[in-house]
Amino acid sequence: MSGKQSPFAKIWVSRELVRELIWLADHITASSGIFILDSVDWPISTANETLYTDASSVGMGYWSPSRNMGFHSAINERDQRDKTKGIFYFEALAVTSALLWVAQLQPAPKRVVIFTDSRNTVDIFNSLRASPRYNPFLITAVDLLIRFRVQLSVRHVPGEENSVADALSRHKFDVARGLSPGITLLPFTPPRLMLGAAQI
Question: What molecular function terms (GO) are annotated for this protein (predicted)?
Answer without folding.
Answer: nucleic acid binding
